[in-house]
């Protein structure tokens, strides 16, 4: 089966203030925002950014949840698709039209139980590839693989309850590629590894043609 294509065009990160987010989102783009996150703020940062694209008051935006809990915008704003992920004090928000993005963010840090988790939840080929790496390489590769799986499953709307072994990727240092996705054509999917900031790793996935990815930073995000 053909691997996922990785032809997304990427632009360097640009800084924006919340008053300047209402810029054109072209049909061939995905905007990925790096922003500060505080749990007590809930969805307020998400609402503010989405409202900027829609020219709406944040409080008027309503969300609906899919069968597996994935949030989306309620009508009349449903044509704007998004997904976000947070880790520690930061978050990534992917916004697009015409496709459903999935994104996952993790902090790079030691993972002493990486192999235990891989043996329990990943497919055999991935686990064997991880076991062949040195400890530092293994931790980084595990997180890259984890974010890739999360991103694709979030884009499908299933989430990890679908089964992490039901999709297979190449394992870093080989560039991450989707090799198998049960019930779907892996070659129809796009996958892009991201390094939004030092000490973090992320993956962005969507089903459909390649798109240009714009990395944007909300002013004030560290």
Automatic annotation (TrEMBL):
<feature type="domain" description="4'-phosphopantetheinyl transferase">
    <location>
        <begin position="102"/>
        <end position="203"/>
    </location>
</feature>
<dbReference type="InterPro" id="IPR008278">
    <property type="entry name" value="4-PPantetheinyl_Trfase_dom"/>
</dbReference>
<dbReference type="InterPro" id="IPR050559">
    <property type="entry name" value="P-Pant_transferase_sf"/>
</dbReference>
<dbReference type="GO" id="GO:0019878">
    <property type="term" value="P:lysine biosynthetic process via aminoadipic acid"/>
</dbReference>
<dbReference type="GO" id="GO:0000287">
    <property type="term" value="F:magnesium ion binding"/>
</dbReference>
<comment type="similarity">
    <text>Belongs to the P-Pant transferase superfamily. Gsp/Sfp/HetI/AcpT family.</text>
</comment>
<protein>
    <submittedName>
        <fullName>4'-phosphopantetheinyl transferase</fullName>
    </submittedName>
</protein>
<dbReference type="GO" id="GO:0008897">
    <property type="term" value="F:holo-[acyl-carrier-protein] synthase activity"/>
</dbReference>
<dbReference type="InterPro" id="IPR037143">
    <property type="entry name" value="4-PPantetheinyl_Trfase_dom_sf"/>
</dbReference>
<feature type="region of interest" description="Disordered">
    <location>
        <begin position="1"/>
        <end position="22"/>
    </location>
</feature>
<dbReference type="GO" id="GO:0005829">
    <property type="term" value="C:cytosol"/>
</dbReference>
<dbReference type="Pfam" id="PF01648">
    <property type="entry name" value="ACPS"/>
</dbReference>
<keyword id="KW-0808">Transferase</keyword>
């Amino acid at each position: 089966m053909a691997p996922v294509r990785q032809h997304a065009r990427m632009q360097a990160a640009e800084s924006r203030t919340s008053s300047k987010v209402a810029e054109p989102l072209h049909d061939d783009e995905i905007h990925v925002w790096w922003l500060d996150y505080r749990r007590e703020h809930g969805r307020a940062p998400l609402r503010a950014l989405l409202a900027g694209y829609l020219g709406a008051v944040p409080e008027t935006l309503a969300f609906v949840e899919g069968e597996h809990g994935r949030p989306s915008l309620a009508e009349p704003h449903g044509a704007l698709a998004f997904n976000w992920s947070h880790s520690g004090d930061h978050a990534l928000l992917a916004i697009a039209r015409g496709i459903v993005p999935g994104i996952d963010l993790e902090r790079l840090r030691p993972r002493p139980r990486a192999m235990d988790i891989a043996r329990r939840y990943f497919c055999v080929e991935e686990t064997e590839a991880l076991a062949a790496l040195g400890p530092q390489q293994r931790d980084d590769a595990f997180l890259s693989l984890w974010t890739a799986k999360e991103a694709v499953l979030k884009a499908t709307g299933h989430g990890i309850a679908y089964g992490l072994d039901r999709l297979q990727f190449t394992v870093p240092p080989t560039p991450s590629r989707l090799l198998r996705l049960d019930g779907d054509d892996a070659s129809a999917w796009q996958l892009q590894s991201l390094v939004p900031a030092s000490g973090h790793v992320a993956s962005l996935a969507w089903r459909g043609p390649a798109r240009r990815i714009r990395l944007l930073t909300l002013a004030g995000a560290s």
